[in-house]
Amino acid sequence: MFKGHSFPKEVILQAVYFKLRFSLSFRDVEELLSIRGIRVDHVTIQRWVYKFTPLIEVVLKKRRKLVGNSWRMDETYIKLKGEWMYLYRAVDKEGKTVDFLLTRRRSKLAAHKFLLKAISNNGCPKVVNIDKSGANKEAIRTYNNRSLKKIRIRQCKYLNNGVEGDHRFIKWRIQNMLGFKSFESASRTLVGIEIVRMIKKEHVTFPRCTYFKTFCSVAV
Predict the structure, then answer these.
(1) What average pLDDT does the segment 71-93 reach?
(2) What is the pTM of this model?
């Protein structure tokens, strides 16, 4: 994964982890590394996050703990170049992250796309709790009709408190960022933030003694 780079793997992992774990700009990470005697440009750090986060996600999928079959599905929003984008997310009843997907629109099509991704990665749930969103409800109905499944739709507001609370962590993480340059950059950075979030939830098999060491063990 790290072959052909002039910096050691340990330096790259530290820079990427700093960016994904804390509310830091790329320039902040550059300064932190300089304090440790490591001279690397913030643009290079940005490229590392862009390049390595999807590769780390592939490895993480193999080491994720199984989620339950009762999900809480919801969406939140982030701003990209002055426009609102929507981050679909789901957790199980114990709070383990099921899946996530950044989309350009909030619609039945977007909700259905997220549902397909979540089911592909985790299997089909028995019940999905949603808010009063008609788009989410229609997405589940469409999936049931097309796949001949019987996912039960439940609309209970307090049961979605868990996923809404999880949203707040993601929004807190990105609120101090200077802004994403592109949809793909935002998507990859959010994937990385979600990965670190899952590690902190101890949602990974064979954890190490610290969250950072677990992160490094995933990025092999």
Answers:
(1) 88
(2) 0.89
